[in-house]
Amino acid sequence: MKHLSSYHAAFVDYLDNYIKPKDPSTLYEPIQYILKLGGKRLRPILTLMTAEIFDCSPEKAMDAALSVEVFHNFSLVHDDIMDDAPLRRGQTTVHEKWDVNTGILSGDAMLIMAYQLFENYEPHIFLELAKLFSETALQVCEGQQYDVDFEMRDDVTIQEYLRMIEYKTAVLVGAAMKMGAIVAEASEDCKNAIYDFGKNLGIAFQLQDDYLDAFGDPETFGKQIGGDIIENKKTFLYLKALEFSNAADKKQLEHLYSVNPSDNKDKIEAVTSIFESSGSAAAARQEIEMYTQKAFSVLDTVKISEANKEALRSFGNSLMDRTV
Fold first, then answer.
1. In contact, 184 and 50? CB cutoff 8 Å
2. To pair with 242 at 20 to 30 A between CA atoms, which of 32, 68, 69, 223?
3. pLDDT averaged over every residue in the chain
4. pTM
5. Assigned superfamily of 4-320
6. How many CB atoms lie within 10 A of CB 213?
7. Beta strand spans in the chain (E)
8. Could you please report the per-residue DSSP string of 246-285?
9. 3-state secondary structure of 92
């Protein structure tokens, strides 16, 4: 299996050839912009990597990988509109750089483009990819709706939150890996197992993302630190802090999540302090580790070489230690 940088470089080259200037420019320039902003390219890399661990040329999986990346960025454009987010990967979001209507329409076009990429495969592979993609895309929408609903609720549970991030984030990671296995025409057992590996890794990844939102370095994270706190999102950190805090801290935390000050610096500092002192931050780190190890346990059932299993474990550990 290649080094991750090789998959990344090959994918970026393929992406650059895909996003050529096109009319109307007002529709396609925002698409080129968001796709060129960079990012980890985690999901397409996983598609290419999975194809190769099942003895398939990663080049054959390139269109599936591209579909995953186009869909992921479509969801980011619309999520940023819903969150009124000013930054994405350290740069101005699409709806801020252009306008909301442009962001909606360009996002819609990206969703269609993602489906079109499956047309480059043989009918039986196309059918399986499209079926998985449709199921996954709908789950992502369900996860986003849960996320929106939680902002208006004061009774969100840990289990509800974990279901939300599973749908909103983790299923796409699982699907990205399963798409690589589908293109490689791996066995059903292997396709399902690698999906479960990716899904559990995706949950760990999102929990880490939530943790970095509160405690990350703004120079490397690429998004506004404390964004979830400003938006009063009931993340794992918040829910655990409520569970662990004494009465006074719990009351203060609930109050902080009921106000929207003009200057959020003090609010962010007060909330993160409670996250630390209550033990919530430590609990989040433990949960990240638990889901990562759960993903690793699935590898024992996948019929691939030990070297490939070790490469996947190394990849998972790198996600736990990331700062971006």
1. yes
2. 223
3. 92
4. 0.91
5. Farnesyl Diphosphate Synthase (1.10.600.10)
6. 21
7. 87-88, 91-92
8. -HHHHHHHHHHTT---S--HHHHHHHHHHHHHHTHHHHHH
9. strand
